Amino acid sequence: MPYLPGGSGRQVELLDHLLEQIDANGGHAAALIDRGDGVERPIREVVRNLTASGLLTHADRDQYAVSEEARAWRQSGDPIDLIKIFHRHIRLIGELLYELSDGPRTVRELTEVAAEKYQLPWTTLDQVRRRLGWFICAGMVEYKTNTQVWLTDTGQCQLDRFALGGPETPTATQAVEVDAPVPPAAIAAIVDELTPDALTARRAVLGYVPRGATDIDIVQSLALLVNACSPTITRQDLMSFAQQKFAVAESSFAAVLTTLTLSGLVEQSGFNVYSPTPEGSAWLEEPTALNLALIFHARYLFVLEIIPLLSEFDKAPDLARAAHQHYGFGRVDVGGIRTRLQVLKAAGLIYERANWRYQATPLGERLVHDVALQEPYDADVAVAVVQVDSEDATSQTEILCQELHDAALAADAPVRLEKAVADAFAALGFDTRHIGGGGKTDVIATVNGPDLKPVRVIIDAKAARSGLVNENAVSFDTLAEHKKSHEANFVALVGPSFESGRVRSRAESAGVVLITTDRLAQVLRRHAKTPRSASTYLGLVDPSATASKALENGWSQAERRIELLSHVVAVLDQEARQADEVTHGALSADQIYLIVRDEIDPRPLPKDIESVLSLLEHPLIESVQRIAVGNGKASSFHLVDAKSLVTAKLAALATNIGRDEAE
């Protein structure tokens, strides 16, 4: 979400002034403008966080233009029209207003909702605050208290003008008879040659396409690179061009060249000399995104196959899972799918009907009837996904989570929740003891802290038939006595939910951490996927302001490391199976970074990739071979085992570690 320096209350005013300045200077990226703070800066610097908002378009690489949507808003002068533009282009706009329709919420609560319901796991409150700032400027939201915001009457009246998240089922495209343009002969030839075997033999990884510091799209970038190769160019000159135009580092250029050659746009025509292929030359004569989409379809898996599948899965993550399970992808490659969607959208074959949700156009539907498509390994994709979910539901973690939920409402059997809480903390690695009974603490949980000294937690469990634990159900004085008598370090209270008034304020004053059963279940599910050392879960019961954040940050890092391991193995596996004369089946850490950096958020550090490679190279695994390049260049790494064997080796380590326990 964009933010303009100058105060949250002046965002609309500052934006109007900024767009006026851009128009006055013809949108030239290097032109100096004053955004309202008295300091002149180049337009390219000022608009850096506005380009995804729908307010600007690219006239060309070095020139911006105010979009037609933005011009319509400036003409109407209605800030509601501006919010509607944001809603069409940025996630969690109308949805955030909807979350306020039931009553006041704090910024922190809205940030938690963003993570839980909309898959936006922000680590700070900044993104929600930015959205609220624009809403306040538009008169749709105001602060009810110092911490709570709510909808104004204007905001309530405008809710029905926002389509929230797009319809659950894609609407049918209007029946329109269209004719697909006839591609150039060289491009038509490679498409016509696609047999079932050729379709399954296509590459999965698109590779690295440089974009530079601006928001130039993949079609424009490739057109510039292929054009630079016409009629011929040396490797050194092409690298110099890429460095000048896109600021490509020398260590990254090999990945760029690999993408150009494997995509079929460029070929080596002499010693260190490159030229466009016949289809690449044909594309330069008719440089449309549609022709590029056809070339990509001939070279890469799951390109035009996306179009008919949009009737079932209309978002990139769902499409990525389908590509992995049924179209030969070695991993769930969300970044690669998003790149494909960008090309298909630019070609007019699909359109974005709601934030990040896509639908086929009549041209797209017509085209997929005229070209050969790969058949999925299992046509019943939806059934396969349901089966996976069903298996997960039978796990021990799910059984325990369901018991926490049910027991939290069973007020006539309070011992049930006490035992479920004890089991939950035991599953997280604590040494737990259920006590219960009148005048006694319910659960004592002990774990060795980071300094290897025991840390004791007393936990009280409160079930409530209404689902809401009120002030009368809790004696904070008794909890303080229990803490003292058991010499506990922390005190936690677990229940279905808690009143937002005195219960929370008194708990904060008493140093008691409130944990809902939903929150505890969420931790259990996450632990089942990414286990952490028991001491890290002290962040769940520690009332200090930094404890919860430290738990989340450490957990996120662990998840990213595991995800990175999976991506690195898949990338090396793909490269080893489809070796070429440029990489010879081996990649450096920098080349791997360029491939996976947009698939993991935030981007991994090169040292993280090197750590993964060191693990795979370790004598206990020995699945990666280091290849010295010489001349001071970084080593390359070749995956010597199939991906399934890497998995088996790692599983064997776990099996042998747990053998004594099993016996």
How many strands in all?
Answer: 20
Cα gyration radius (Å): 29 Å
What oligomeric state do these chains adopt?
single chain
Low-confidence stretches at least 5 residues in length (pLDDT < 50)? Answer: 166-175, 379-394
Structural class: alpha+beta
Strand order of the largest sheet: 13-14-15-16-17
**Helix fraction bin:** 40-55%
Overall average pLDDT: 85
What is the CA-CA span between the terminal residues?
55 Å
General description of the model:
- α3 (68-76) runs antiparallel to α4, α9 packs parallel to α15 (289-299) and α21 (396-409) runs antiparallel to α25 (517-529).
- The protein is built from 30 helices and 20 strands.
- The model is unreliable at 166-175 and 379-394 (pLDDT under 50).
- The strands form 7 sheets. A 5-stranded mixed β-sheet has the order 13-14-15-16-17, sandwiched between helices. Strands 5-7-6 form a 3-stranded antiparallel β-sheet.
- Helices cover 49% and strands 13% of the residues.
